[in-house]
Amino acid sequence: MAVTKLLRIKERKSGDPSGGLKAALRYICNPDKATLVGGNAGSSPDHAYAVMKRNKDYWNKTGGSAGFHYVISFPPDCKVDARTAGLVAEDFTQELLGGRYYFTYAVHTDKDHMHVHIVFDSVAVDDGVKYHSPKGDWEKRIQPISDRVCQKYGLPPLEYGEARTSVNHGEWIRRKERRKEKHGGPDTRDNWETKKQQSEHPYIHSWFDLMRDDIDEAIMRSPSYGSFLRYMESLGYTVRDGKYLSLKPEGRERAVRTLRLGRGYSKEEIQERIEFVRSHPVDPEDFRRYGEMETVRRLLFLKKRKSGKWRMTPFQRSFYRSWRNTCLIRRPGPMARRGSRSAVLQLEELSDNLQFLIREDIRSEEDLRQKWKAAGIERKAVQSELSSVRTRIYRSGISRNVRRWKELKEKASRSPEEESELLQLGKKIERAMPIERAIAYEADLEAQQSRCLDQIRTLKSRERLLAGIDRQLMEMQQENISDPETGRTMESRKPGSREQTPKMDAQARQEENMKKEEEEVIR
Fold this sequence. Notes:
Layout: E1 2-9, H1 19-28, E2 34-38, H2 45-59, E3 67-73, H3 82-97, E4 103-108, E5 115-121, H4 137-152, H5 169-183, H6 188-198, H7 207-220, H8 225-234, E6 238-241, E7 245-248, E8 256-257, H9 267-278, H10 293-306, H11 314-327, H12 347-359, H13 365-394, H14 397-409, H15 416-432, H16 435-479, H17 504-522
Antiparallel strand pairs: 1-3, 2-4, 3-5, 4-5, 6-7, 7-8
Protein name: Relaxase/mobilization nuclease domain-containing protein
Region (Disordered): 175-196, 475-523
Domain MobA/VirD2-like nuclease: 27-155
């Protein structure tokens, strides 16, 4: 037996969020393909979907992953009938899910090899917990279950495709241990999967994340493997197709074998996914969005609520467009591909810049320069204050005496020499002021030093942020950033030149477009 596909059914961005789940159930229950249908959700696709949808609504978990779709395939020479295949699917699903999730399975006999499709809900029936498949789940949980079920029904153990190594779970464990001993760490595949998980912070992305997203997009929009390769070339990749598929992103020096991107991205797995997508309806509007757009929406809403007359200026609007274009870089249609893919790697910085401009109400380039200059002046003043405080701390005799006196006083045991020194220091301090007052004076100086250091760090961070905003402004002026809705571009300006005053009619039109877009953002 071979579990050839482990697929997550994603939430649709438009229409019914669980529409993909309904489509998958209808596909596997197609009477032209299915010989046997069963499961605890029922044998009718519409009834099964209604059961799963009702469960999601009950637990108020209609977003995120809608469900999961697993496919169990048997080799052509395997002597298995539809009834046994159904029993395998039931036992496999029962042991994997423990009866906590609604599922439907269907045995397909329309190809030269028998295979079983299993579609199950992502929300548990008993407590509403979402199904989670962590790193290493295939090897640690799914593969052992498959091997046990196969053994129960006298079927061959789990096998991989030709590009994989055919080993049972015990052999996989032994090989993994040998790799650890040889290389002093986990195997390469595990390393890349770990990096993938580490990079899955929702708002921070790596080149590997972008490559995976590009491949996912190309698979969804390619009817064949050849068209998939052409699609990747249209995205700026240099494609090398041989035993392995290697892709070199535009702007990168070296190509990457796709199998290094994680499970589901080897050449054979990509071909299988393309073939699978051909049989499933695809929502053309279901595209990948980057960044946390809701945070900016909330900020705009609060700003408008505090002052109903508040509107973004053209200066602020240019940053909003740059950020929004990057978030929606995969939007299909004529407005797609505006902006550079590498901008996604700096998306968190773009978001921080935009939020800073709105919170601080920096409404023009002149405001930006003034804020930047004021931060520098304030930092220098605090640095001067810090220098004065440190002079009193480290060059004042009383401060040195108090620090040494406290050091000796806190010792659990002191030598006779230290006892004598402690007594002499106490007398010196008492001649200047009471010891309690001297200790308070020293503590106040330490607090002033700490406060100055904190202020300097904050001001330096502010200056870096303002410098980053200025750098982004220059880049946008060179690239003529366009509005994702209207397609209009901001005026490019040479460094040092004055910003031209727009004509009144153009300004009125721009204000109208700004109003419409803001209303869309805060809805």
